[in-house]
Write a structure and sequence with these properties.
The structure holds 2 protein chains of 2 kinds.
Chain A: H1 2-17, H2 31-35, H3 63-77, H4 96-99, H5 102-110, H6 112-118, H7 120-129, H8 140-155
Helix pairs in contact in A: 3-8, 5-6, 5-8, 6-7
Chain B: H1 2-22, H2 35-39, E1 49-54, E2 61-66, E3 71-75, E4 97-98, E5 101-102, E6 108-116, E7 119-129, E8 134-139, E9 144-150, E10 157-159, E11 169-174, H3 192-195, E12 197-205, E13 212-221, E14 224-230, E15 238-244, H4 253-256, E16 262-269, H5 270-278, E17 283-295, E18 300-313, E19 321-327, E20 330-335, E21 341-346, E22 351-356, H6 357-365, E23 369-373, E24 376-379, H7 381-384, E25 385-390, E26 396-401, E27 406-411, E28 416-421, E29 427-432, E30 437-441, E31 454-459, E32 475-481, E33 488-495, E34 502-506, E35 536-540, E36 543-551, E37 554-556, E38 559-564, E39 568-575, E40 584-588, E41 596-598, E42 603-608, E43 614-619, E44 632-638, E45 647-649
The chains are: A mainly alpha, B mainly beta.
Chain lengths: ~160, ~650
C-alpha cells in the first residue's frame, strides 16, 4: 500500500510538471495530445510558426533556385503533391503562392509537426487528407528554392 | 476439551502464520519497501543506463534500460532476423558470410564496449560468435552491426571480444584447440597432444572508423582458452587468459579435464609480440576467413575473403607468454580497475586466487619458474599470488569491480553474488540469486572507472521466478542496488536467448548521438530510386529490377505487370521519408523470403523468384499513417512464354472504358 502510494505521488509529481520535452511528434497517434489546446493566441496564421519571420522576394524569378527546387521536389515532394491543383496525397501546388505567404510556406516545410499541430487551416486539411505531411528535413536554403519553384509553377499559364 | 481445541486453533494459526512468513522469505526478506521506487521509470521518462546484453544462443545482442529492465531493441548480429530483414535482404546477406559460406545462426556470449584511456566511450560494442569464430562490431549511433570478422585456426571463440584500454585490440582465444587450418586436419582425434594447437587472435581496431583487421595470432599449446581480460594502467600491454583442460583431454572432459589440481592463467605480453612482428619474426600463414563490412552510405554489406594471417610461435619466441598456475579449471579472468590485481575464478575451487601484477613481473625478472608447460615458462604459484579469498562460496565464475576497492564475484553452485574487499580479501556481503548465476555486470565494471550504482546478475536457471511457459522458461536477469554497503535486490527482468556477459553504459553517452534517419541525398546504393519520377521496372534477360519508392502511404510503382515464371525479381525499395521513426516494411505474398524493413532514406532489396502464375499482393508491414492499410499494390505473374510486356504505374492503371 505504502509503495503504491509513493508511486502514485511520484507519478503525480511528474505529471504535474508536465514535462513532454522528449516528444517529437511524428505519428498520427501523438496528434491528439497536443491538439487538445486549440487556443493559440500567439500563433500567427499568416506567418505560421518557425524560424522564417520575413522573407524578401525579388520580383524576378531566380532560375538557379528553381532548378534546385525542382530536384528537391522530385526527390522529396513529388510522391504526394502534383503541380496541378489536383489533390494526390496532399493538395496540388497550383496557386499555393497566392494562397499562402512565403514565410508560412517555408515554416510549414521546415517546421512541419508544430505547424500541423497549431495551424487551424492545416488541421482542416488533415481531416481531408488524413496523412500528416512528413517532415522531409529540408534545409533553409532548400525551403527557399522550393518556394521559388512554386512561384515558377504558379507563373505558368 | 475446550483447551485442546484452543490449542489446535492456536497451532493452526501459528502454522498459517509461519507458512506465510515462509513464503516471502525469497522475496520479503530481500526486497525492501523502496525497491519499487528505485526501479520505477514513469511513462515517458528515460532510463539511466543502457544495458547491452549478450543474447546467448539467439546469436543477437539485446538492449535494456536500467533500472527499469525494459527491452528496447534486439540487435541482429550473428543470426538472421526476419523481422528486420537482416540476413534476408540482398544488402545484409554478406554480413553472415564466412569461409564456410552463409551461416544463419551463432551463439553470442560476451559484449564489450570500446574504451579510451580505460573508460567506456560509447563508440562501439563488440560481440563474439562462439560457434563459428567471429567478432562483430556494433555501431552505437545506429545500434546496427557494422562489421564482422572471422577467425581462422580457431574453434569456439569463447575468450572474446575483450579489449585493451584504448581499444587497440580486440582479442579472441580459441576454446577448442584444433589442428591449424593450413595443416592436414584429417588426423585421429586422440592425437590431440601432437596435432592440436590453441590460437589467440589479436584484432586491431582503427581509431577513427573502428574498422577491424586480424593483426596477428599467437600459436599456443593445445588447451581450452576460456575467458580473458586486458591489463590496464600499469599492466597495459598485457592480456590475461584463463585456460582449462591442460590435461589435453579429447573426450569426457567433464572428468578428464578436471584431473589437475591447477590449470593456468596465461599472461600475454602483447607489446613484446608487436616487437617481434616489427623484427620480422612473425610468419605469414595461409588462412581463409571472411571480413564483412556494412556501408552506411550504400546501405550495403560487402564480404571479402582474406587469405593469410601473421602468426607468432609462443614456444619459439620467448617472453610473450607465461603460465600462472590457477586452481581448478579457471573460468573468469578479471583485472581490477588499478590493473594490479588479476582475479582467477576456478569454477571447481572453493577459494578465489588473486594475483599481483607487480609480483608477476618480479617473478619473471627473477625467473621464479616451475619448469615449463609445452615450452612456455610456468611461474611459481606463490610468486605471483597476492592472496586467496578463503571460502567465499561454491563455484566462483566472474568478477566485476566497483572502483571503491571491492570486487563482486558470482557463484554458480551456491547461487549468490559475494562482495569482497580486494586489499584484505575479506567477504563484505553476500546476496542470493535465483538461480545459478553466471555472469554479472556493473556499468564500467571491467574498466578503470566503474559507475557502480547497480549490479546485474545473469542467471542460468529461473525455475519458479516467472509464470511458467511450458518446458522452456524465461531467461532472466536480476538487478541489485550496490550504492550502499549492503547489496539490495530490486528487480527481476526476463531476457532473450540465454544471457552471458553484458555491459552497461550511462544513457548520457549514447542518447544524444543517435542517427535519426539516413540522408536520401547521401544514399549511394547501386539501386537507389531518388524520387518517384525515377521509379521503374527494368528487364535484363530473366532478371527484373524493380526500382521502387515508399512514402506515407504508397509505393511507386504499385501496379506491375510483365513478370514471368522463371524470372528472378529484385525489388529495390527506397524509403523516401526523411524523418525519425518512419520505417516502411515490404512483403509479397508467397515470397520465400523475409520482409524488408527500410529505414528512412535507406534502400533495401528483396529477391523474389515467383513460382506460380497469378496476382501477387504486396503491402507495407510497418504501420506508417492513417492510410497505412491503403499502402499496398499488385504484381502480375504470367507464364514463361507469355507476351505480357513489362509495365508499371501508380494511380493510372484504370479500368478500360466500356464501349
Amino acid at each position: 500500500m505504502k509503495i503504491y502510494f509513493t508511486i502514485l505521488a511520484l507519478s503525480l509529481g511528474i505529471l504535474s510538471c508536465g514535462g513532454s520535452e522528449n516528444q517529437t511528434s511524428t505519428t498520427d497517434a501523438e496528434v491528439k495530445t497536443e491538439v487538445e489546446n486549440p487556443e493559440n493566441p500567439s500563433y500567427d496564421p499568416k506567418r505560421g510558426s518557425g524560424k522564417f519571420t520575413k522573407v524578401d522576394i525579388d520580383p524576378a524569378i531566380d532560375l538557379v533556385m528553381v532548378k534546385k527546387g525542382k530536384s528537391n521536389f522530385d526527390l522529396k515532394c513529388g510522391s504526394c503533391h502534383r503541380l496541378s491543383s489536383e489533390r494526390l496525397v496532399g493538395p496540388g501546388w497550383k496557386g499555393v503562392t497566392s494562397r499562402r505567404a512565403p514565410e508560412w510556406i517555408m515554416n510549414f516545410i521546415t517546421n512541419t509537426d508544430e505547424m500541423i499541430n497549431k495551424d487551424p487551416q492545416v488541421q482542416a486539411q488533415l481531416e481531408i487528407c488524413l496523412v500528416r505531411m512528413p517532415n522531409q528535413n529540408l534545409s533553409d536554403a532548400d525551403a527557399r528554392s522550393l518556394y521559388e519553384f512554386m512561384r515558377q509553377n504558379d507563373a505558368k499559364k | 476439551m475446550k483447551s485442546s481445541i484452543n490449542s489446535i486453533l492456536l497451532f493452526l494459526i501459528l502454522g498459517a502464520w509461519s507458512l506465510q512468513s515462509c513464503k516471502p522469505k525469497n522475496v520479503g526478506n530481500l526486497i525492501s519497501a523502496d525497491a519499487a521506487t528505485k526501479t520505477y521509470v514513469a511513462p515517458g521518462k528515460y532510463d539511466e543506463f543502457y544495458n547491452l546484453v549478450s543474447g546467448g544462443f539467439s546469436g543477437q545482442m539485446s538492449v535494456y534500460g536500467l533500472p527499469s529492465g525494459r527491452l528496447f531493441r534486439v540487435i541482429p548480429v550473428f543470426s538472421v532476423d526476419p523481422e528486420k530483414g537482416y540476413g534476408y535482404s540482398e544488402e545484409t546477406k554478406p554480413m553472415l558470410n564466412t569461409s564456410h559460406g552463409f551461416i544463419p545462426w551463432d551463439d553470442l556470449h560476451h559484449t564489450e564496449l570500446s574504451q579510451t584511456n580505460g573508460e567506456v566511450d560509447g563508440r562501439w560494442i563488440f560481440g563474439n560468435a562462439n560457434n563459428t569464430p567471429r567478432v562483430a562490431r556494433i555501431d552505437l549511433s545506429s545500434f546496427k552491426t557494422a562489421e564482422i570478422i572471422e577467425l581462422p585456426n580457431s574453434a569456439g571463440n569463447h575468450s572474446s571480444p575483450f579489449i585493451t584500454e584504448n581499444t587497440e585490440y580486440v582479442v579472441a582465444g580459441t576454446r577448442f584447440s584444433v589442428p591449424p587450418d593450413n595443416k592436414n586436419g584429417d588426423v585421429p582425434i586422440n592425437t590431440y597432444k601432437e596435432n592440436f594447437k590453441g590460437y589467440i587472435s589479436f584484432i586491431s581496431v582503427k581509431k577513427e572508423t573502428g574498422e577491424m583487421d586480424l593483426a596477428f595470432q599467437i600459436e599456443c599449446p593445445g588447451v581450452n582458452f576460456d575467458l580473458s581480460h586486458a591489463g590496464k594502467g600499469k599492466s597495459h600491454g598485457w592480456f590475461f587468459f584463463s585456460c582449462y583442460n591442460t590435461e589435453q583431454a579429447n573426450t569426457l572432459l567433464e572428468v578428464n579435464a578436471s584431473q589437475r589440481d591447477k590449470d593456468f592463467i596465461m599472461a600475454v605480453n602483447w607489446k613484446k609480440a608487436e616487437e617481434y612482428i616489427k623484427a620480422g619474426k612473425a610468419k605469414r600463414m595461409p588462412a581463409k576467413y571472411a571480413h564483412n563490412k556494412y556501408n552506411e552510405k550504400t546501405h550495403t554489406a560487402t564480404s571479402e575473403m582474406k587469405s593469410e594471417v601473421l602468426v607468432l610461435d609462443a614456444k619459439a619466441l620467448k617472453e610473450i607468454c607465461y603460465f600462472i598456475p590457477c586452481p581448478k579449471s579457471p573460468h573468469g579472468c578479471d583485472v581490477d580497475p588499478t590493473g594490479e590485481f588479476i582475479v582467477g575464478s576456478g569454477k571447481l575451487a572453493a577459494l578465489i586466487p588473486v594475483f599481483s601484477f607487480d609480483k608477476m613481473i618480479k617473478a619473471i625478472a627473477q625467473k621464479q619458474f616451475d619448469g615449463d608447460y609445452e615450452g612456455i615458462p610456468v611461474i611459481k604459484y606463490e610468486a605471483a599470488l597476492y592472496g586467496e579469498v578463503k571460502k567465499p562460496g561454491l563455484g566462483p565464475l566472474h568478477t566485476e569491480f566497483d572502483g571503491k576497492g571491492n570486487a563482486f564475484t558470482t557463484f554458480f553452485v551456491s547461487s549468490e553474488v559475494v562482495k569482497w574487499n580486494i586489499k584484505d580479501l575479506k567477504v563484505v556481503d553476500r546476496v542470493p540469486t535465483y538461480y545459478s548465476v553466471g555472469h554479472l555486470c556493473i556499468p564500467g565494471g571491467d574498466s578503470k572507472k566503474p559507475n557502480a550504482k547497480y549490479l546485474i546478475a545473469y542467471n542460468k536457471i529461473t525455475k519458479d521466478r516467472y509464470l511458467p511457459t511450458g518446458p522452456e522458461l524465461a531467461q532472466s536477469a536480476q538487478l541489485y542496488d550496490i550504492s550502499g554497503e549492503k547489496m539490495q535486490m530490486i528487480l527481476d527482468f526476463p531476457t532473450i536467448g540465454e544471457p552471458h556477459y553484458a555491459q552497461a553504459i550511462s544513457a548520457d553517452l549514447l542518447k544524444n548521438k543517435q542517427i535519426k534517419f539516413y540522408k536520401i541525398e547521401e544514399n549511394t546504393n547501386k539501386y537507389v530510386t531518388k524520387g518517384e519520377a525515377e521509379a521503374r521496372v527494368v528487364r535484363e534477360g530473366n532478371v527484373v529490377h524493380v526500382y521502387m519508392t515508399s512514402i506515407r502511404s504508397h509505393f511507386a510503382p504499385d501496379n506491375i505487370e510483365g513478370i514471368k515464371l522463371g524470372d528472378e525479381v529484385y525489388i529495390h525499395v527506397t524509403n523516401l521519408e526523411q524523418d525519425w521513426d518512419v520505417p516502411h516494411g515490404f512483403a509479397i505474398k508467397g515470397a520465400r523470403n523475409a520482409e524488408l524493413l527500410i529505414m528512412p532514406g535507406e534502400t533495401q532489396t528483396m529477391k523474389w523468384v515467383p513460382e506460380r502464375v497469378g496476382i501477387f499482393p504486396m503491402y507495407c508491414t510497418d504501420f506508417c499513417s492513417a492510410l497505412h492499410q491503403e499502402m499496398q499494390g499488385y504484381i502480375r505473374v504470367s507464364p514463361k512464354n507469355s507476351r505480357v510486356p513489362i509495365s508499371f504505374s501508380l494511380g493510372t492503371n484504370m479500368p478500360l472504358a466500356k464501349k
